Amino acid sequence: MENNTMLSENLKSTFSDLEKAIHRFNENSFNQKPNGSNWSPAMVTQHLVLAGTGIDQVLLGNTNSTEGKADGKVAQIKGIFLDFDSKFTSPKFIEPADQNYQLKEQLNKLTNISRSIISIIPDLDLSLTCTDFEMPFLGYLTRLELISFVIFHTQRHTHQLNNMAN
């Protein structure tokens, strides 16, 4: 099981890779939908902004002790999001609007999200279950599982952005 330091470093690395992927686009290509894609790179980025916004508050919010292992769903979450051959439909509440987005503004939002999560990880008891938000299809997650979700979900869309850039 990952400890707080390892989790923090993994999150930093994941968001660094995401930033590099986004920087492969210019302001124009960032908002263009590639052939066969429903989303532009900007919309993928906005999806990550919507998915990450408020995660810090859930991590700091109400919790319960966890029955079972703190990392009980990590392998399942990893299997879902790092299966790049599977396609998913986004829940409506994190579906991006089909509009133009400013690349720099989106990067700033993602940087703020990552910094806010990374700043609180050192003091978190990762074994507690977050009860302020129930993840669709997964239920309530431990802090460890929720941070793992952020990592694997971001890695999935970083892969998608890199494919779009190619």
TrEMBL record:
Domain DinB-like: 12-161
Domain of life: Bacteria
InterPro entries: DinB-like, DinB/YfiT-like
Pfam families: DinB_2 (PF12867)
Name used for this protein in its record: DinB family protein
Species assigned in the record: Pedobacter ureilyticus
